[in-house]
Write the structure tokens for this entry.
Amino acid sequence: MLTEFGKELRKLRLDRDEYLKDMADKLDVSVAYLSAVETGKRKIPDDFVSKIVKAYKLTDKDANMLNELKEISASEVRVPLTDKTQKQKEAILSFAKAIGGIENKKLDEILRIMNEKG
């Protein structure tokens, strides 16, 4: 299944009438690798968004959107806890454990609160 990042990548390619191979060549990756990134079977490399932005001469707005989709599409998130207080660590771990059971309405509320805090 395509990730949100993969969907946008595919849209970018199709809007430019390119095949998977065309985009893979522009990004200096194999077709199989590009396909795996689109479908979430491979981690999106750290420099991938900058490669896409450069190859397709995208705007800063497009780059920011791709970076957000990259974060959303990540199958694994690492949160460094070394500089966090004990209470912050408890909150992070508790949220990670409970997220699957939180309804969307509550998640929207949590996201609103988090976004207000920066």
